Amino acid sequence: MRHSLIALLVGVLALARPACAADPPSCATVRLADIGWVDVSGTTAVTARLLRDLGYAPAIVPASVPATYEGLRARAIDVFMGNWMPSMAEARRPFDEDKSVDVLGANLQGARFTLAVPRYLWDKGLRDFADVARFGRELGFRVYGLEPGNEGNQHIQALIAARRYGFDSFQLVEETQAALLARVRHAYRARRPILFLGWEPHPMNRHYKLAYLTGAEDLFGPDFGAASVFTNVRAGYAASCPNVARLLAREVFDLAGEDAMMALMLDRKLDPARAASVWLRRNRAVLKVWLDGVTTLDGRPALPMVANRP
Fold first, then answer.
1. What domain count does the chain have?
2. What is the extent of the structural domain holding 160?
3. Would the pLDDT of 20 be above 90?
């Protein structure tokens, strides 16, 4: 119910005219969490660039998922662009329950997050979580996850603890995103078996022929781990800073756009801030939608201030 009220509030704000849309000076600094995932780093950097152009002072705060939610609760973080659902449901649940976090809406739909394998392994029959046990020896009884504390890792650990699908014979190897992607690249080039946490959007889905496993829908969600990514803010932020909230609520990405953004960082080796600038220059059409009804911090219409920036 509370989230529906927040959505209603944001909808009303989105219809408000620019003359009444400016934020108070207390909203000038906007603290955005970055959990280090390439997609989240990209969307966070795009948001920071737009806010800077509008006269705000965005500050990007590196943090893990648990630290991000604690920061929102403590009012040390204002915005989190990377709430992957349903995989982060348990991580977010305590903060929903104590009403310390508000959900503005989805900034991406059609994503996925679950265990993946190279297509050549899928062709051999590893297509579902129930198939994993009989491929254990080929896989070295290892499944590769992300950084410690990642919710995907927690789902794998739950499978191991519950002795489901034969996962109790497996070891979870936790790695940074960069290390995991390097491992997948090396395994793919050598056509070695590998079982790992995969996700989309990400350029790896274009670089390699991958397949996502069915099964474990209670943990990763149905339809091959289908997911949506939500924008979260600290409780009361939309009411306190309605202009920023209006921008955040209108800022919606698509899979192709995020793939292109991540390719700038991973393939061209641009840092997130530079990638955001390049991406916005190539995707100016989104600004008319995102900046509709949004103003600068001092109350001027946003679109003219941003559309012609280099």
1. 2
2. 111-226
3. no
